[in-house]
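Protein of interest.
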Amino acid sequence: MYRSQVLICGGTGCTSSGSVKIAKRLQEEIDKNGLTDEVMVVRTGCFGLCALGPIMIVYPEGTFYSMVKEEDIAEIVSEHLLKGRIVTRLVYDETVAENEIKSLKETDFYKKQHRIALRNCGVINPECIDEYIGRNGYEALGKVLKTMTPDDVIQIILDSGLRGRGGGGFPTGKKWQLARNLVKDADQKYVCCNADEGDPGAFMDRSVLEGDPHVVIEAMAIAGYAIGATQGYIYIRAEYPIAVQRLQIAIDQAREYGLLGKNIFDSGFDFDLDIRLGAGAFVCGEETALIASLEGERGMPRLKPPFPAAKGFWQKPTDINNVETLANVPWIIFNGGAAFGKFGTEASKGTKVFALAGKIKKGGLVEVPMGLPLKDVIFGIGGGIKNDQEFK
């Protein structure tokens, strides 16, 4: 049992600013000071506040260190981890009030957020399936396979009001319903995850896959059960190497635990997953172009109808959801459709993840209830425009 855990952001943003070297140096200092059996170093996914990375959080205190450098590590170990003295000059400034550390949830950046899709990002080691299971991971899949019919699953997604988060906003439950019912006698059906996030400045899906890859695997298995599919594919940009690596680790772990493959949870349900890499064509974010690329063809949109729910991958019924949409599914199954519907608006329920990028003071990743004014996101959470310039 460790007395302290030091969580270091291992997302692309913090990795690019040196978090890998910081984690290595931290482990060296811990070992040198005889703390190897007392302090654990964990590389997580994105904490959200990318503008102040690299980020490090020390538990159980919850001290949030920002813009950490290699030369700061010796002081953090000697003062904080050995003597229990917080290195206040490195603490995220809004968490300091009369030299006492406030809860991060009380700070401007976090207090208006509510994390569902991002609930495990920055909290768990994404390369450890046991940590995901410790956060109720795969319980939704077990519930589905042991206690629910496919129609029950579709109904709870319909009741939640979840819409596609990839841009189209089509009701997810309706899409699953069509994939299940349009061609009932199909000998094969497929579930595809659209992780071809090509919009400039967008990193929502990438961050979910880097910080919580098992949530997408679990959601795709649930979708497979709902529509009658036994095979899934995650179509992801090759420019996301950390996400690809962690996805493959997660898939291998899920297979080892019997959570992918044959007879999952002794239910008779079979489902497996594979990764397919995209070459970076923006057009492949469109679902029919994605299917063409999956089949080895040039990524070009196809005329609709027929829709993928009737004729998709290899002309078989196919459900396609994007990463953020799927990340909500296990939470909805576990907590109920009504719980998800408490957030957001009547027409658009739940939460939405945004990537704050560009000329904003606190760029990063946020998740807020649908209907929150953009003014609150840009100024309340993001701190407003850099150099206090006027918003046009």
Summary: The radius of gyration is 22 Å.
